[in-house]
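In the present case, backbone shapes were mapped to integers, as reproduced here:
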Amino acid sequence: MKRFYKEAEAQPHGDGWMVMLDGRAVKTPSKREVAMPTRGLAEAVAQEWAVQGDEIDMDAMPLTRFSGIACDVMVDKRDDILADIGAYGLSDLLCYRGDEEALQTRQREQWDPVLAWAAEYLHLPLECTIGVMPMAQPDGTSERVQAVLGQLDQWQLTGVAILTKHTGSLVLALAGLYEAYDAPQMVAIAQLDEIYQAERWGDDAEAEAHRADKASEIEAAMQFLRLIKG
């Protein structure tokens, strides 16, 4: 898409903020105006628009994309999103351990503290197993997951959904929401298995690029969650 505006700026709008492109509000693909909850998020989104060149690259505008999701998908399909994300809580990445002792040691060191945090802070204890075969979680886990997610507003849920997608772990995504871990820690925890395999068997440019893309999305989602808090 060619750039169609000269200036991008954040402006107050009711109880929130909007980004204006030459005086016109940024809209979602379904033509909803994107009303953001905080000045910080609006200013960051405005900056994404301001630095675009002659061609607009939406891949380079994660905060804009996430804000659009919050105003569209999380409004129209909230129940579906809750169900999809909740499914990760029943088959969370952190609960499935490798069969090599060296890998298990790393997993215990980096993953067990996240699960302990979830059990204490969210009252969401999860069981672990060796291998990838599906494992049943304790009775009431599904209901507890939905109760935790049901407390989130559309902006929080957007950040959690994006983190869950790119980490493979709902528990880790919630830890990011509540700032139990920072962005570099989130990336390291989420990519532990991939890094281990690369160290053991060698890496290639495609795999490295894939990890970098996921890390970028995790970092942007963490920034998004910080900004919506004001």
Summary: The chain has a mean pLDDT of 96. The beta strands are 8-13, 16-21, 24-25, 96-97, 129-130. The first strand starts at residue 8 and ends at 13. The CA atoms of residues 97 and 107 lie 7 Å apart.
